[in-house]
Amino acid sequence: MEEQLLERWRAEERDQPEGWDFSSLDDRMTESQEPWDLDAQYRQALGNAQHVLDMGTGGGEYLLRFADLLPADTTATEGWQPNISVAQRNLAPHGIEVIEYGAPDEDVDSVRMPFADDRFDLVLNRHESYSPHELARVIAPGGTVLTQQVGGDECAEIGGWFGQAAALPHVNFAQFREELQDAGFSAVDGAEHVGVYTFEDVAALLAYLQLVPWETPDDFSVDRYQDRLLDLHRRSSGGPITMTRKRFWLKGVRQ
């Protein structure tokens, strides 16, 4: 029985796919939805924008939801190497240049953004680290930053299961709001939300973890962690498994 489970779980192991798409888990995982409408916030912000930057565009999938509103001067950045060529392929037909750039989570001020001062009037950022000081440099006075972030201590349950503690506790609503204000932004709106991810079983959890490998120990695999996975399976009686989900969003205007 255990060997059959392990074989099933091994079948979930694969390289991270291109782009940023969780649709393969649609019937195996559910997640709480935050009470704000990020799409509506994007559309409102894009209404008057002329010079737009999308940070951490992934494969460009989310940005292209708003293709009808994007100005001619739209640029994107991506720092996750497997996604850069995907984003370039997806966004080039829309005249959007993709530039390789990413701010390290542990030291966001260590890498200068590859843009001139006052370059943009709107910066969009969905789940990408950023330097508030660099944003204040590249956003023109009166320009806007609109970001949604994943709480740095979400999925803390993984630490109990596999020994990987949450690595970014400083990524939270209160601190990010304060840092934007300190960098010269009026934080005009924002909120935070705590919900849950629910996976139908251990196999579904493993399928999810293949898409977010940074959430697990560097040596993570079914074979190396089979005892812990089997224990998790027993404790959940082979059924649903939940993890904490955290999101927050902020809108700031450069003074």
Characterise this structure:
This protein is of the alpha/beta class and 255 residues long. It has one domain (2-254): Rossmann fold (3-Layer(aba) Sandwich). 28% of the residues lie in helices and 26% in strands. It is built from eight helices and eight strands; from the N terminus they run αβαββαββαβααβααβ. It has helices at residues 2-10, 38-46, 81-91, 132-138, 157-162, 173-182, 202-211, 226-235; strands at 29-31, 51-55, 73-78, 97-100, 120-126, 139-150, 185-199, 241-254. It has an eight-stranded mixed beta sheet with strand order 1-7-8-6-5-2-3-4.
Quick structural overview:
One of its GO terms (molecular function) is methyltransferase activity. It contains 8 helices and 8 strands. The chain is an alpha/beta fold.
CATH superfamily: Vaccinia Virus protein VP39
Query: Which regions are unreliable across 5 or more consecutive residues at pLDDT < 50?
Result: none
CATH top level label? Alpha Beta
First and last CA, distance: 63 Å
Q: Taking all residues together, what is the mean pLDDT? A: 95
How many helices does DSSP assign? 8
Main sheet specs: 8 strands, mixed
Query: Which assembly state applies to the chains in this document?
Result: single chain
- Structural class comes to alpha/beta
Shape: elongated
* Helical coverage, percent range: 25-40%
| Count of folded domains | 1
CATH architectural label: 3-Layer(aba) Sandwich
Strand percentage lies at 25-35%
The arrangement of helices and strands along the chain is HEHEEHEEHEHHEHHE
Strand order of the largest sheet: 1-7-8-6-5-2-3-4
GO molecular function, one term: methyltransferase activity
Domain Methyltransferase: 52-143
InterPro entries: 23S_rRNA_MeTrnsfrase_RlmA, Methyltransf_25, SAM-dependent_MTases_sf
Pfam family, one: Methyltransf_25
